[in-house]
Each structure stands twice: as C-alpha cells, then as structure tokens.
Amino acid sequence: MSARQPPYNVYVQRSLAAILAIGALSWSATLFVAPFALTSGNPRLVAAAAAVYGGAGLICHQRAERSFHLAGVQQPVCARCAGLYVSGAVGALAAWIVWRHPRAPRRTRSVLVLAAAPTALTVVLEFAGLVHPSNTVRAMCALPLGGAAAWVFIRSLRAEAAEARRFEGARWDAL
C-alpha cells in the first residue's frame, strides 16, 4: 500500500453508503414491480414476487385494507411502510448526490424526533380509535421519517469516511 492510498476502512465506509443507497432504491422499486410480477404468469417472476412478499411479511403486517393495490394486487407492504421505504430511498439518494463535501448532520435526534411525529401521531390516534386515516394519509405521514432517517444515516457514513480519509492522509504526511 502506498503512502497516499487511503486505508481499507475508508473504502468500506464509502462503499457501504453507496450500496445502502442503491439497495434502498432497488427495494422501493421492487415494491411497485412485485404485484405485476405476481400476476405475470411467468413462473420465475411469480416465484421472485412470492419471495418479496414473504420477506416483506417478516417486517410488515401486510393487512390488505391498509395496503395500496396495483393492478388489483396488494403491494408487499402496508401503505405506511411503503411511505417509509419510498421516502427512505429518496432521502438516501439526496444525501448521496446533494452534498459533495460530506459533513456529519447536526441535531440528528431532534430531526428524527420531529420527522417521526406525524407517523407516531397517526399510530396513536388510530390505536385509540379516534381516527381511521386513509392509506394515502398513512403513507404521507411516514414520508418525513423515512427521508430523514436515510438522509442522516447516509450523510453520517459519508462524513465518517471523509473524516477517516483526512485523518489517514495527515498521519501518512507526518511520516
């Protein structure tokens, strides 16, 4: 390894942020493609869609009345989860593209608490039986949380990689 080459962990951190952003985009797209694949009649596509529904069922209740339907088929996740995933993908992509010089996000707890407020409010009010929001409202209330969480996570990973790169460069320059 030359004196100017960043250490392994810098590459891992930077790559991890990119992989997670691409994964979030891919998963969000899969949620919209799966219902069409399920009805395609192609055994391989149907099997792949069934695997998506099975995996999504591990983390989502998948209640039909709380899910969006595409082509007459329920999506693999409920509307709230769909909102979280879609906004998470957008937030991850924005965090990757918008900032050329990554810095750790400030006031992350406050940002995440504020972003979670609409989701938490609808869950509490719904559980108390005071409101019965539509799927669109559930999804819309989840958008701030998914976007903010992805933004904070990707920005933090990128900032940590940039900081490690600066630290390692200074260390090698001192030798």
Spell out the blueprint of helices and strands:
Layout: H1 8-38, H2 43-56, E1 69-70, E2 73-74, H3 79-97, H4 108-127, H5 135-174
Antiparallel strand pairs: 1-2
Helix pairs in contact: 1-2, 1-3, 1-5, 3-5, 4-5
Structural overview:
This protein is an all-alpha fold and 175 residues long. Helices cover 71% and strands 2% of the residues. It has a two-stranded antiparallel sheet with strand order 1-2. Helix 1 runs antiparallel to helix 3. The chain is flat and about 55 Å long.
Give the ordered list of helices and strands: HHEEHHH
Biggest β-sheet: count, sense, barrel?
2 strands, antiparallel
What is the molecular shape? Answer: flat
**DSSP E strands, number:** 2
Distance between the termini: 14 Å
How much helix is in the residues?
over 70%
Helix/strand-derived class? Answer: mainly alpha
What's the mean pLDDT score?
A: 88
Order of strands in the sheet with most strands? 1-2
Radius of gyration: 20 Å
Strand content: under 5%
Low-confidence stretches: none
Tally of contiguous helical segments: 5
